[in-house]
Amino acid sequence: MRTARRLAGPVAAVVLVAAVATWWGSSLLPGSYAVTSMGVADPGRPEADAAVLARLRAAEHGTRGHGAHAGAAATVPVDRLRTDRAATPDVRVDLAAGEGRVVLADGREVRGYTVNGTSPGPTVEAEAGQLVEVVLRNVDVEGGVTLHWHGMDVPNAEDGVAGVTQDAVRPGGTHTYRWRMPTGGTYWYHSHQVSHDQVVGGLLGAVVVRQAVPTTDVDTVALVHTYAGRRTIGGRSGDTRLDLAPGRTARIRLVNTDNGATTAWVDGGRYRVLAVDGTDLNGPTPVEGRGVEVAAGGRVDLEVTAPADGSALRVSLPGAGVVVGPVGSAAPAPTRPPVDRVDLLRYGSPEALGALGGAPDRVFEYAIGRRFGIVDGRPGGQWTVNGRLFPDVPMFMVTTGDVVRMRISNNSGEVHPMHLHGHHVVVLSRDGVASTGSPWVVDSLTVEDGHRYEVAFVADNPGIWTDHCHNLPHAAEGLMAHLMYEGVTTPYRLGRDTANHPD
Ligand SMILES: [Cu+2]
Predict the structure, then answer these.
(1) Ligand 1 centre from 375 Cα, in Å?
(2) Ligand 1 midpoint to CA 418 (Å)
(3) 238-243 vs 272-276, strand pairing mode
(4) Lowest-pLDDT range, 16-30, 312-326, 381-395?
């Protein structure tokens, strides 16, 4: 009896250690795996089919390998989902990625990554409908690189996600991307290999679809990036100047490449929000004394008019700005970000949404939370999707042509800029309040803590598409799910034993 009591403590300790070790061990990801073998297939049936959904979920719980879900349909590897290689491109661009010393436009030197020797890299520009070819060459980035065309609904094989749509390009290697430019808009490119390091380090640049008939006198890109703790526009901290005669108009294409949302506003004038994430807004009205949010990864095109009295105005962001006015005009005194902001749910004029406003074929929940757990051997507070930890997160299963509704909610204590690859979504409602403004179409959506958004999109771009948080450390921690078309497979693998590390 006394012996038993003496042993109880050590035995309990051994059992506890064994349990923790098992828990820890079971959290480890395989050294090499296909993205399609992870996650929990979610068929996303409308609520009316809640019983069907419960049955499907029960049947699929624990099932790994969604190739099986293709049913009778033929499978298509992502490599086949690419832009035609036979046609002659209209625009051809060589982009060379490097690592090490970066000399910014304002003369400051930082450690990081360059494209063609600079950061940000050159802007890739073409006209609507033109065929663009980009040849990426990795000069000396040890960890390998890719290029993802953020916000561009390119074919899946051109999406640039290491281990999902291609292998990371090793030093000395090249990879060719091709796509046709959409009708308009502001986008950007960045590495999707070790992106929490490479994007922060500057492996990025802007993509612009030039307007055939410009709607402003001047059109300029203002790419916002924070290097070593200092906010810049085009690599320049403080003010950048844009010369513009009184009464003339400019389109300022703000691109937020940072991990957090920012606010833009105009000192000394008014502005209109012409476009969000590459899509023009309908009936944008003048804004004065209010700011507009630019989501992490998001883009906002502002229209400003140089004041008639010959003074200048400033498109301001915390830490940087663009002074717009005649040569030599004094910049207005800087102000603090306005508390009041444009609510894109109510800005501009509504337009019929067509099929997107109708009954969906699939309804998905993307509920973000946080709890203690172990992900790949790392214990701590973890992001959850629908209550589960990575990699047991949903694989949102769709078929081409489906009208999809997704309810994105966040009760995790932090903000998450959610980014779906290959598609644009229209925001239907926020916290149950329906949109009454212009159709608000995004690829990067700030989902604040305690809020929920309902979005809709058409599944019209077959592939395997990452749907992740663009606060990139969060993605690396496991806040990442996938939209997956039935029957699509990938020959690529990721994991610690491979050279592919997309986050
Ligand atoms: Cu996040």
Answers:
(1) 16
(2) 7
(3) unpaired
(4) 16-30
Residue 234, sorted as left (phi over 0), alpha (psi -120 to 50) or beta, turns out to be: left
Domains in the chain: ranges and CATH: 26-75+352-489 (2.60.40.420), 91-210 (2.60.40.420), 218-325 (2.60.40.420)
What is the rounded CA–CA span in Å between residue 282 and residue 469? Answer: 28
Q: What is the pLDDT of residue 66?
A: 46
Specify whether the CB–CB gap between 249 and 217 falls below 8 A. Answer: yes
The alpha carbon of 446 and the centre of ligand 1 are apart by a number of angstroms equal to 9
Burial 124-144 (b: 16+ CB within 10 A, else e): bbbeeeebbbbebbbbebebb
Q: What is the dihedral of CA 39, 43, 46, 50, to 10 degrees?
A: -80
pLDDT attached to residue 77? 93
pLDDT mean over 36-65: 62
Q: Does pLDDT of 67 surpass 60?
A: no
pLDDT digits (tens, 9 = 90+) for 219-265: 999 999 999 999 999 999 999 999 999 999 999 999 999 999 999 99
53 Cα: distance to centroid of ligand 1 (angstroms): 28
Distance 195 CA to ligand 1 centre (A): 14
Q: What percent of the chain has pLDDT over 70?
A: 94
- Torsion of the alpha carbons at 377, 382, 387 and 393, rounded to the nearest 10: -60
5: Cβ contacts below 8 Å, ≥ 6 apart = none
Kindly give the distance from the C-alpha atom of residue 296 to the centroid of ligand 1, in angstroms, as a whole number. Answer: 10
Could you tell me the distance, in angstroms and rounded to a whole number, from the CA of residue 294 to the centre of ligand 1?
Answer: 15
Q: What is the pLDDT of residue 5?
A: 75
Compute, in angstroms, the gap from residue 250 CA to the centroid of ligand 1: 33
Cα 260 to averaged position of ligand 1 atoms, centre (Å): 9
| Alpha carbon separation from 458 to 22, 389, 396, 400 (Å, rounded) | 42, 27, 13, 8
pLDDT at 281 over 90: yes
Query: What's the average model confidence in pLDDT over 269-281?
Result: 97
Average pLDDT over residues 291-320: 97
Give DSSP secondary structure letters for 245-270: -TT-EEEEEEEE-SSS-EEEEEETS-
Distance CA 233, CA 449 (A): 28
pTM: 0.91
Query: How far does the centroid of ligand 1 lie from the alpha carbon of residue 472, in Å?
Result: 7
Q: Please state, in angstroms and rounded to a whole number, the distance separating the CA atoms of residues 370 and 61.
A: 21
pLDDT of residue 65: 44
Question: How many angstroms does the Cα of residue 360 sit away from the middle of ligand 1?
Answer: 27
Q: Is the per-residue pLDDT at 27 higher than 80?
A: no
Q: Would you give the DSSP letter of residue 72?
A: T
What distance in angstroms lies between residue 68's CA and the mean position of ligand 1's atoms? 31
